[in-house]
Amino acid sequence: MITELNIKQIEKISKALGDPYRLKIMKIVSNNATCTQCCDVSAEFNLAQSTMSHHIKQLIDADLLIADKEGRNLKFVVNKEVCTAYADYINSLVL
Amino acid sequence: MITELNIKQIEKISKALGDPYRLKIMKIVSNNATCTQCCDVSAEFNLAQSTMSHHIKQLIDADLLIADKEGRNLKFVVNKEVCTAYADYINSLVL
DNA sequence: CAAAAACATCGAAATATTTAGATATTTAAA
DNA sequence: TTTAAATATCTAAATATTTCGATGTTTTTG
Hints:
- The first copy, chain A, is an alpha+beta fold.
- Chain A has one domain (7-92): Winged helix-like DNA-binding domain superfamily/Winged helix DNA-binding domain (Arc Repressor Mutant, subunit A, Orthogonal Bundle), CATH 1.10.10.
- Chain A has helices spanning 7-17, 20-31, 38-42, 49-61, 80-92, and strands at 36-37, 65-70, 73-78.
- The longest helix of chain A is centred in the middle third of the chain and has 13 residues, at 49-61.
- Chain A is globular and about 45 Å long.
- At the A-B interface, helix 1, helix 2 and helix 5 of A face helix 1, helix 2 and helix 5 of B.
- Chain A binds a DNA duplex through helix 3 and helix 4.
């Protein structure tokens, strides 16, 4: 299934990636073979829990992360299709 | 020559792309076979000249556009290397 | 050389984002 | 079943971004 992103989604994804914490979260999740959890990620940062929650929410809302609530934990992985579709859009600017 | 972007550049590029006007500017420049100028772009928008100038500056500062001052005109094209390098970074999140 | 064209810069208002603390919710553990 | 752990939500302050109008600079044109 090939995902095509509209311009509003491109904007939202770009905005979500326009923050150092959120970029670092993406990298951590990407580097993790297994699903990551909020608390795993939080451990790497010096931010309030509510702030972390906010950042992760933005990545999920932008569909960059796919989340799955398991018990009291929130697990997530990189949304490969959306990342690829976003990269495709960027590449389409280069003709 | 292969461009490698550091994380600060990735952040700056993402931020630059996280705005509907700037995304539209990128598309206009991308679609133009020849160099684009500020006044070409401005004609498509309902924004003050100073605002357009500000948006274009952000794209140039993020190295997404390459600018060249010719007389009183500012001409620019898409920076293909940086766009490609950015897309590569995004793809690197998908393993 | 005076006027206009193209763009940049500055200052200020409006708006959006980031952040933390307090509190709420949901689930697991004791 | 009380307690603790993991996350979410709300509010408010701090900070950043967007936008415009006014003005400045540089270059071309009359």
